[in-house]
Design brief:
Layout lengths: L1 H27 L2 H17 L5 H12 L6 E4 L2 E3 L6 H13 L9 H12 L5 H18 L5 H12 L3 H40 L3 H10 L1 H13 L11 H4 L3 H16 L11 H7 L9 H4 L1 H11 L3 H30 L32
Helix pairs in contact: 1-8, 1-9, 1-10, 1-12, 1-16, 2-3, 2-8, 4-5, 4-6, 6-7, 8-15
């Protein structure tokens, strides 16, 4: 049980580091925004088959990079927003198409979307957008209790009712669900990548770790005492959006500090101080003939276990601590019962009277009888 607790603690702490790196990768590559670009592009292609996937993706990226919905820029580059509401998408599409009628030189994409809207019942996107704004203001005067999104939706349904709005409203929710599925898949791939990087950098060999915990009583006892002292401190931290915007150096330093604070001087996880130390670590404790392959299975197993995530290991740790306390309580009760002076046992019942055959009266059984 104590060996499993030590393994669970190690995997929990390192899994939190994997979560930090996954959050960093998710933010730096803007996975949610890129998935939303793909979903909006499919909606635009649905409006008109004449708009190809490449053009639809360019239009979607331009719309989601609008300052009203865009994500914070990174290194001066615009990044598409990660969320958008249905009424926002409708207004932004109308605004994008209306640019083809404004002053200046419109892009071919503006003209393509304007032509698509015209085929779907919106001949003048600029006028439709103006009517929607006016109607939303009127609804705010007459029905101030309505939310802003409700007022805009009512204005769109009354003044821009068309095939365009019908297609968009009908497929929006299903498209967002598929965007969420695509984002979840990419996050899982990022988690697997982060788990691989962390396991390789820390040289986390699960098989060697189990052997150390099994052989070293002092290490095992130190880990268990640390967990039992305050199990709640090992709870995975809540993701913070401000932490997601940290630089890589800050993420690395935060990860190192977290491992040190949680595991202390137990030496369950050894963080290499340099690249040379990392290379040397691969040959430490390994077989001389084949040092890399001897630890390959343990590292691959660590990657698989880390991919389960910090919440899984925290729940497992809580259950094992609870089970250990229950088992320890029963052992203490049995030990106390054995050490307690027991009352003398009751006297054994008297032995049964020895059976003796009855002597028959008369000549029966008389050996001296004359027969």
């Amino acid at each position: 049980m104590d060996v499993l607790i030590g393994l669970a603690v190690t995997m929990l702490v390192v899994s939190v580091v994997v979560t930090m790196i996954t959050q960093f990768l998710t933010n730096i590559f803007n996975l949610r925004g890129n998935c939303l670009v793909g979903g909006v592009a499919k909606l635009i292609s649905l409006l008109d088959s004449g708009i190809g996937p490449a053009d639809a993706r360019k239009i979607a990226r331009d719309i989601l990079c609008d300052p009203l919905v865009a994500a914070p820029s990174l290194f001066g580059f615009r990044r598409p927003g990660a969320t958008i509401h249905r009424e926002e998408l409708t207004k932004l599409l109308l605004d994008f198409a209306a640019r083809s009628q404004g002053p200046g030189q419109p892009s071919p994409l503006n003209a393509k979307l304007a032509a698509s809207l015209e085929q779907n019942g919106i001949p003048d996107p600029s006028q439709a957008l103006q009517d929607i704004r006016t109607q939303a203001l009127e609804l705010e005067k007459t029905n101030p209790e309505l939310s802003n999104s409700t007022r805009v939706n009512l204005a769109i349904l009354h003044l821009a009712s068309s095939n365009f709005v019908g297609k968009l409203n009908h497929w929006f929710d299903q498209t967002i669900d598929r965007v969420s599925d695509a984002f979840t898949l990419r996050v899982r791939l990022c988690t697997l990548l982060a788990a691989t990087l962390v396991a390789l950098w820390l040289q986390l060999d699960t098989l060697a770790l189990v052997n150390r915990l099994s052989a070293d009583d002092a290490l095992r006892q130190a880990v268990v005492e640390r967990v039992l002292a305050d199990p709640g401190k090992f709870a995975p931290p809540t993701p913070d959006q401000s932490e997601a915007n940290q630089a890589w150096q800050e993420v690395a330093e935060a990860s190192r500090k977290y491992v040190t604070d949680q595991l202390g001087d137990t030496d369950l996880v050894r963080i290499p101080a340099s690249f040379d130390a990392w290379l040397q670590g691969w040959t430490t404790g390994a077989t001389p003939l084949d040092p890399w392959r001897s630890r390959f299975a343990g590292v691959v197993l660590s990657i698989a276990l880390l991919s389960l995530g910090a919440p899984f290991w925290y729940e497992l740790l809580k259950n094992m601590v609870r089970l250990r306390s229950l088992v320890a309580g029963k052992d203490d009760a049995q030990r106390e019962e054995r050490q307690t002076t027991q009352a003398a046992p009751a006297a054994a019942p008297a032995a049964a009277t020895q059976y003796s055959p009855l002597t028959a009266k008369g000549e029966a059984g008389n050996l001296n009888a004359i027969g």
